[in-house]
Amino acid sequence: MIKTAQNSAGELVYEAIGLKKQYDNGKVAALRGVDFQIRQGEFVAIVGPSGCGKSTLLQMLGSLANPSEGVLKYRGNSISDMADPSEYRAHEIGFVFQSFHLLPTFTVSENVQIPMFEGKFSRSERAERAGELLKSVGLDHRLGHFPSELSGGERQRVAIARGLANHPSVVLADEPTGNLDSENAQQIIELLLQLHRDLGVTLVLVTHDLAIAELATRTIRMKDGRVIADSGATPLIDSP
Amino acid sequence: MTFFTIVVRGLIRRPVRTGLTLVGISIGIAAVVALVGMAWGYEKSIEKQLDVIGIDLLVSNMSAGIMPKVYDASIQEPISKLPHVAETTSVLMQLLSIEDAPMMMVSGREWGGFTWNKLKIVEGRMPKDADEPAVVLGVLAAEVLKKKVGDTVQLETLELPVVGIADGGAVVENGAILLSLKIMQQATANEGKVNFIDIRLVPNTPKTAIDELCEKIKIIFPEGKARAANEVVSANQGFRIARAMSWSTSLLAIVVGVLGVMNTMLMTVFERTHEIGILLAVGWKRKRIVYMVLCESALLGFLGGVMGVTIGAIGLKILEHTPAIRGLLEPDLSPKLLLISVAIAVVVGVISGLYPAWRSSRLSPSLAIHG
Questions:
Q1: How many CB pairs under 8 A join A and B?
Q2: Contact criterion met (CB below 8 Å) for B3 and B294
Q3: What are the pLDDT digits (tens) for B176-202?
Q4: Stretch B82-99: mean pLDDT, rounded?
């Protein structure tokens, strides 16, 4: 039996085995059997044309959707069998969305504090940590502003700060530069790379931009719901 | 930022809708305060009147009406001879329309009885004797009727001069027209009839002796019943009906409030599908989302309750001074009623939020985010 392993020596974080996802009572197949492994500290870019299933895959990694078939494990535990997936979403991963998804009636600082309500932070600790995170993304002068008062790049930086609120070990980014101009897109990618380097977080990034994918330590190419290439996967002979 | 900040933000994001919902709840709660406050106030006013006069037991033939039926005054004599009875006096009391006032308490009292003792004349004098065709007005009754000493009052078939104005120490006493029993019986064509025998007991009469006395009165007057002064109001079927009506009308107002809050909270949840999806995606537990929605609806209820209590209290104070009410009752605005009303509003809020909260907890974060 052949299975894949990664070049990185880090601990196994994700393991996907035969992942399938169907919508509309099976009429639409978003994933048609996907297998891969991701290890701690990797920067994985998932690339492919629109509709290839890369965003669906990211949603599964984030426990926002369950597979129709197959198993997706996080550190050895099936994500869809987790008793409380919100624990996993709150403490293990940070999400960065293409459309930022900030809450418009909350300030920049408050948006970053929102996930911390599921953590063991006091009121002052929440405010303090939000300040630190926003400083790390260069927005400490915007704490009291509302999202509508920020540029697209600034909003995405707030979203990144929010994604890091509860010290996640994995950051899942879904087309984080998709709504940004090239200058802001460059800044956001540099910021994600810096966080990946400095904090050691595993970064899984979905993009259709091959230039961004080239910055990743590994690229998974998808087409029609399948992985067609994986730059980091090495075939191994499974021991009995 | 605290969790409460998030709850408040949820409400103020649509200030007009929140405001209109608050108005809806507050009207319902104002109705509760006004109607129940009137019912309780009437009961308390009667109880205070009996307390001020110093009545221990009342013998009456309570019916479904507010006032008991009349009966033969001769029953008083055997009752007065029973053990532990210190003093008795007869009263014929009726609610009558007097001139422009729609309803006033008119109290014909046995001349020389203890029910006259606590009245303080503030102007004029008392009637000279049981036969003098004259009335004394309570201070509020004089204000309502706009009468002074020397004027006359049309009481059914008799036109009677006002000889005095008195302070009775209780709203119902001050709102009443007082006259001798004999003149009252003539005016209302109830010669020889009364509807209350008021009893004062020998001091420190034990409860068992009072119960025995009530049994003996029952033998003398099988159609009627002797009750302790503090039980008179609660035993009256008319009061019970009034209380039930006030609560049932209030219930209708509350149901309207529930529907209003539920509609608002459902709209809120539908409108905030995307926001709730984001909260779930960043790790919020479903129970925290449910708690947030319930807190918002409870806060709506609480604020509506506070507004409603304020409106109801102001309304009651205005009603208290209308000619139809003045002198008949002192509305009850006790902390108990106000707290109950606010508590009802909060419960209304929570109940109204249950379904929207359940709906919000069923949202799929993926669908909520991507629409």
A1: 67
A2: no
A3: 999 999 999 999 999 999 999 999 999
A4: 91
Q: Determine the Cα–Cα distance for residues B83 and B62; give it in Å rounded to an integer.
A: 24
Is A123 in Cβ contact with B283 (below 8 Å)?
no
Length of chain A, in residues: 240
Query: B295: exposed, middle or buried (C-beta count within 10 Å: 0-12, 13-18, 19+)?
Result: buried
Residue A204: what are its φ and ψ, rounded to 5°? Answer: -115, 120
Report yes or no: B39 and B157 within 8 Å, Cβ to Cβ: no
**pLDDT on residue A234:** 45
Q: Could you give the ipTM of this predicted complex?
A: 0.88
- The residue whose two tokens read 């090239």 is A182
**Of B1, B275, B283, Cβ closest to residue A113:** B1
- Cα(A186)–Cα(A156) distance, rounded to whole angstroms? 12
Cα–Cα distance, A110 to A103 (Å, whole number):
9
Q: Are strands A170-174 and A202-207 parallel, antiparallel or unpaired?
A: parallel
Q: What is the CB neighbour count within 10 angstroms for residue B306?
A: 18
Q: How far apart are CA B366 and CA B371, in angstroms?
A: 8
Structure tokens at B304: 């509506």
Question: Do A105 and B13 make contact, defined as CB atoms within 8 angstroms?
Answer: yes
Q: What is the DSSP string of B258-295?
A: HHHHHHHHHHHHHHTHHHHHHHHHTT--HHHHHHHHHH
In this structure, how many other beta carbons lie within 10 angstroms of the beta carbon of residue A112?
A: 31
Q: Given this model, what pLDDT does residue A131 score?
A: 95
Q: In A69-199, at which residue ranges do the beta strands (DSSP E only) sit?
A: 69-74, 77-78, 93-96, 170-174
Assess contact for A182 and A212: CB atoms under 8 A. Answer: no
* B90 contacts: CB under 8 Å, gap ≥ 6: B73, B76, B109, B110, B113, B181, B194, B196, B197, B198
A-chain CB neighbours of B288 within 8 Å are 117-118
**How large is the average pLDDT for residues A88-114?**
93
Residues A213 and A227: their CA atoms lie apart, in Å, by 15
